[in-house]
Amino acid sequence: MRFALSSLLLLSCAACASPATPVHEREIVDLTWTLDETTIAWPTSPGFTLETQFDGVTEGGWYYLSHVFHGPEHGGTHIDAPVHFHQGRQATDEIPLRRLIGPGVTIDVRDACADDRDYLVGVDDFEAWERTHGSMPEGAIVLLHTGFGAFWPDRERYMGTAELGPDAVPKLHFPGLDPESVDWLVTRKKIRAIGLDTPSIDRGQSTSFASHVALFEHNVPAFENVARLEQLPARDFTVIALPAKIGGGSGGPLRIIALIDR
Question: What pLDDT, on the 0 to 100 scale, is given for residue 16?
């Protein structure tokens, strides 16, 4: 696939304050947690490990370091590909790059989530955002700022329980997206993607994962465990979210950044 990144960045910044600002002159915010032994994954998933293959001086006289890493598709900052919850939809390597780069908006729902760990972010929140910040740009990448990123990597505070295994799943408590809002986001705003600073786009107490299903039916991917959303403005920035290109994957590690004009 041939892809002109500079052209796409310029197009995706149509709604930004200064779309002609060169990429290298814009502030870059890393929205990605480091993959290491503290990385949080779903209670039924294995953690991330880094195994050293070689660390030292070779017989040829030069220093050499190499590792093998192991971990789930859905641990740490990662993407959920549409096929994750909808058969026949796009796998990780099939998601168009245009879905992964676009104008970003941050929906700040920290107060509501502080009062209710099981809060559902819904249309009322999006319409309240628009009353303050103007119409959400069509084709936006929407980031839900619940405030739970402040708890990383404390599993109990972040997820509601530090337990592992199937018995831990019913004890999960964290906010998510109201599935009733998906039609508003997809049909009216034609969003490219959506992400948040919790382990799942569905809240921890969900048993139907209806937001996953509704989003993925439309091939709209989700970004989970996004970091440092407190560093973003409400709008006028660009999101670049590039996952590991895993053939047939249901998700994968994601390096996501924001480019901001200051």
Answer: 47
What token pair was written down for 106? 């941050």
Domains of the chain, residue spans: 17-34+72-260
- Residues sharing a CB contact under 8 Å with residue 41, sequence separation 6 or more, in sequence order: 47, 48, 71, 72, 74, 75, 76
Cα gap 220→187, rounded to integer Å: 11
Res. 5 pLDDT band, cuts 50 70 90: low
Q: Provide CB contacts within 8 A for 163, sequence distance 6+.
A: 43, 171
Q: Specify which residues 259 forms β-bridges with.
A: 28, 238
pTM for this one? 0.91
Each residue's pLDDT tens digit, 20-53? 677 778 899 999 999 999 999 999 999 999 999 9
105 by DSSP, 3-state: which? strand
Output the furthest CA–CA distance in the chain (Å, rounded): 67
pLDDT above 90: residue 9? no
Tokens of 199: 């382990």
In sequence order, which ranges of the chain are alpha helices (DSSP H)? Answer: 5-12, 110-115, 123-133, 155-159, 182-183, 210-217
Quick one: CATH architecture of 17-34+72-260? 3-Layer(bba) Sandwich (3.50)
